[in-house]
Amino acid sequence: MSARILLLGGTGDALRMARALGPEHVYSLAGLGRVPGDLACSVRVGGFGGAEGLARYLADERIGLVFDATHPYAARISANAARACAVPQVPQVPQVPQVQYWALRRAPWQPQPGDDWRMVDGWAGVIEAIAPFSRVLFTLGREPLAHLDAVPAHQHWTVRCLDAHAGHARARVVDARGPFTLEGERALFEAGCFDVIVSKNSGGGATEAKLAVAREMGLPVAMMRRPALPPAQREFVSVQDAIAALATFSAHT
């Protein structure tokens, strides 16, 4: 039996890769957002139980390659995947080769002339950076939802994330899914009268328009630094190169 591919996803780039996988391979999602229904490969939703649980899954399912195409800030699953692939295969399935660990490492955005980025680390750094401001747009995903009851009296937050959530007098939650256009971002910024933006340095083009609009409007951006990620045996910046490598692996195993 050929070694199978486990694609760890959840991003738009990962979905593009999943569309190129055949029925013997597996696309894994954490469970947030919509589950695609038009893929030839299997779709698995939910966690694995840490590195140990993932290692057992790799052995049981005869996985020969784990391709990490998770979000650049999903440091925990990346660390677990790297650890699981380093675990020797169990003797009961000796025909399965050592599991390879590859990763899509999307290039981060770089500040452009006119940008006002304030680099921060973690939630405490975000709160410190936005303290002088009153109209805050968060584009971090779900994390700010856990802090809506702690919005300072002088601030109003707008939180953009994938899923709907009730706001309150000092917070509004906007459920929206990229890609986002310049025109759409301009309309959002003008309606919200924001004076600061909070962002992860996700890279890619799907959500970059907010940075261009912040630059146009002279707005500061509290930019969260990327977490450290484990090294992979092969790392890709281009989705096209990653898809080609997956096809080559599948054809030769």
TrEMBL record:
- Signal peptide location: none
A single Gene Ontology molecular function, please? Answer: precorrin-6A reductase activity
Has the keyword Protein biosynthesis been applied to this entry?
no
Supply the alphabetized keyword list: Cobalamin biosynthesis, Oxidoreductase
Pfam families documented for this protein: CbiJ
Name of the top EC class for this enzyme: oxidoreductase
Q: Does the keyword Oxidoreductase apply?
A: yes
Its UniProt pathway annotation is: Cofactor biosynthesis; adenosylcobalamin biosynthesis
User: What's a single GO BP term from this record?
Assistant: cobalamin biosynthetic process
Task: Give the top-rank taxon of the lineage listed in the UniProt record for this protein.
Answer: Bacteria
Q: Which PANTHER family match?
A: COBALT-PRECORRIN-6A REDUCTASE
Protein name, entry field? Cobalt-precorrin-6A reductase
Q: Which organism is it from?
A: Paraburkholderia tagetis
